[in-house]
Specification:
The protein has 160 residues and is mainly α. Helices cover 43% and strands 8% of the residues.
Length: 160
């Protein structure tokens, strides 16, 4: 038991009233770093912030400012793709990239699908897509909203 008037280590307080266990005020990480080290840490943080910002801008640009691979409708190359029931949106994006229908990776396709009117509407089947189509146009075909020029579309229209 502590004597009256004598402070124990648990009773020691700093000037600002914070308790410490050792009686020594603890300092933050920046106060322990020398001047040159502090400058290097700020430069590293700024560089990291710039790199993340550039990546985010590039990703947003790819998602919101899309252009078809072909310059115009006449230059487009048609490609037949088969979508199975067990394919994820990422796998469909990879398939489209492998077939030269989209320029970027599956992440851009997945983000575009998530914000489009065709979210969770892609249906399995065989589709004819073109490099002159935008991602939104491809999604409309894959969701079977736009069936013009698709295999089996003529048969369905004739039955009506």
């Amino acid at each position: 038991m502590a004597e009256k008037g004598r402070k124990t280590t648990s009773d020691v307080r700093t000037e600002k009233g914070r308790k410490t266990t050792s009686g020594v005020r603890r300092k933050g990480i920046l106060s322990r770093v020398s001047g040159m080290g502090r400058i290097l840490m700020y430069l590293l943080a700024a560089t990291l912030l710039i790199l993340v910002g550039r990546w985010a801008y590039s990703l947003a640009h790819d998602v919101f400012y899309e252009k078809p691979l072909a310059a115009d409708q006449t230059e487009g190359r048609e490609v037949t793709v088969v979508i199975t029931d067990d394919m994820s949106v990422d796998e469909i994006g990879t398939l489209l990239k492998e077939n030269g229908l989209i320029e970027k990776d599956g992440l851009v396709f997945r983000l575009k699908e998530q914000i489009s009117d065709y979210h969770d509407m892609i249906l399995p089947g065989t589709y004819v897509l073109s490099t002159s189509m935008t991602v939104d146009e491809m999604l409309a075909v894959l969701a079977q909203v736009d069936t013009e020029g698709q295999p089996g579309a003529e048969e369905e229209e004739g039955e009506s």
